[in-house]
Amino acid sequence: MILRLIQHYPKAAVLSVPFGQLEPSLQGYAEAESLWKEQLHNHPDDLQIIRNAGNSFMLGNLDLAISTFEHGKSIDPENIVWDMALAACYNLKTIRGQAK
Question: In Å, what is the CA distance from 11 to each residue of 15, 50, 57, 69?
Answer without folding.
Answer: 7, 9, 15, 16
